[in-house]
Amino acid sequence: MAETKDIIKLEDMVKIYDTGAIKVLGLNRINLSIKHGEFVAIMGHSGSGKSTLLNILGCLDRPTLGHYYLDGIDVAQMSGDELSRVRNQKIGFVFQSFNLISRMSIQKNVEVPMTYAKIKPDKRRKRAIELLEMVGLGERINHEPNELSGGQRQRVAIARALANKPPLILADEPTGNLDSQASIEIMELFAKLHKEGSTVVVVTHEDNIAAYTHRILTFKDGVLQSDRINEKPTPFGENVGLGDRKS
Ligand SMILES: Nc1ncnc2c1ncn2[C@@H]1O[C@H](COP(=O)(O)OP(=O)(O)O)[C@@H](O)[C@H]1O
Ligand SMILES: [Mg+2]
Question: Does residue 17 lie within any of the structural domains?
């Protein structure tokens, strides 16, 4: 049984992709614990298993072998419906390509996870607006994603990830499509969420992005190669300008 203070605990976790003709080893015997409130970076070259790990942590995929305890519950034992519910309540996922719904206002985009959680329309609207204000987009709630810059779209995606107040925020190369200023703003936002108590796990291959976090895991060829504490995380709150910038 996993200790309750671990929000994530992997035991000898293996992921094999079975494509029919060939089997690909995505991750090989990963043992890893992450406590509530940690701020962690996952690094490694392309193909090292970062996305495979994040998809499993986010309950978008399941381990082939071994265990994944999310908040003490063995995810491998859950049915598809249970898994969707857990994902909706416990996890906020942020993608490199934002994955917003086009031709829908950003306010409606942020409401989507709350609709699945059966939150009443009034409450949903209020919370979506609050979240968009929090990420500096309060003046643009009726805009559609294609009217916003990449950095702004990613802030919408973060607001959406936070909709159901999940304890765990996972982001797969969230700054991969952004310029350096927008990347800083996104990392400042994650640092703020971490400070407010969220557990945040960010995949990146950029050192200056990982530098914001407090712990850096490095993967190589599907194996956890190193796990180190970042003694001097980049200070935040200084570069921030989450105003309604044009760019
Ligand atoms: N859906 C899939 N089917 C088959 N192989 C996959 C699939 N997804 C990832 N892989 C393989 O698993 C390994 C790890 O990939 P991935 O987790 O995407 O790496 P990263 O995110 O670090 O670039 C790679 O060898 C990749 O080709
Ligand atoms: Mg990847």
Answer: no
State the burial class of residue 62 (Cβ atoms within 10 Å of its Cβ: 0-12, 13-18, 19+).
middle
Q: 184-221, pLDDT tens digit by residue? A: 999 999 999 999 999 999 999 999 999 999 999 999 99
Least confident window among 12-16, 77-81, 113-117, 176-180: 77-81
Name the residue type at position 214. H
Domain membership flag for residue 8 = no
- Say yes or no: CB of residue 17 within 6 Å of ligand 1: yes
Please work out, in degrees rounded to the nearest 5, the angle formed at the alpha carbon of residue 66 by the alpha carbons of 63 and 71. Answer: 80
Closest atom of ligand 1 relative to the 172 alpha carbon: 21
Domain contains 179: yes
Contact 85, 27 (CB under 8 A): no
Among 16, 24, 46, 95, residue to substitute to test ligand 1 (most atoms within 8 Å of Cβ) = 24
Q: How far apart are CA 81 and CA 67, in angstroms?
A: 19
Q: Ligand 1 centroid to 41 CA: how many Å? A: 18
Classified as helix, coil or strand, 94 is: strand
Tally of structural domains, the chain: 1
In the three-class reduction of DSSP (H, G, I as helix; E, B as strand; rest coil), residue 211 is classed as coil
Q: Is the CB of 166 under 6 A from ligand 1?
A: no
Separation of alpha carbons 37 and 55, rounded Å: 20
Neighbours of ion ligand 2 (CB under 5 A): 50-51
Q: What CATH code is carried by the domain that includes residue 192?
A: 3.40.50.300
Read off the pLDDT of residues 102-115 as tens digits, 9 standing for 90 and up.
999 999 999 999 99
Between the CA of 17 and the centroid of ligand 1 the distance, in Å, is: 8
In a domain, residue 26? The reply is no
Tally the residues of the chain.
247
